[in-house]
Amino acid sequence: MEKGERPKIVVISYATFHEERNQLTRSYESKLFEGITFNKGLVSSKYYYPRCTIKNNDIEIEYIDIVKDFYPVPMVKFSAISYFINQIWNNISIKNTVGFPITKKIFIDLQKLAI
To answer: Domain range spanning residue 40?
Structure first.
């Protein structure tokens, strides 16, 4: 591919959670945050993760520091109301993945390269 040659075949592995991962929804970010903070033994001061958006018909990638930039709902581990608010907020963020906009754009861009 570096020489400009097209491959004879391309295999794409895809699961529905990939859209949530690509958009770095609050729900997915929350899971990453919980995992990172649970494993405090991991030695790294920054945990960057990509967040994709579509702007001007192009995919833009921004790198987010999960530990620094994520704001958990206060008292989420101790209060049923906080936990409920957290779940609602996460569920709203997942609704942005309906229709798989990032994945569709990636596949369209890949198809253009293949033609």
So the answer is: 17-114
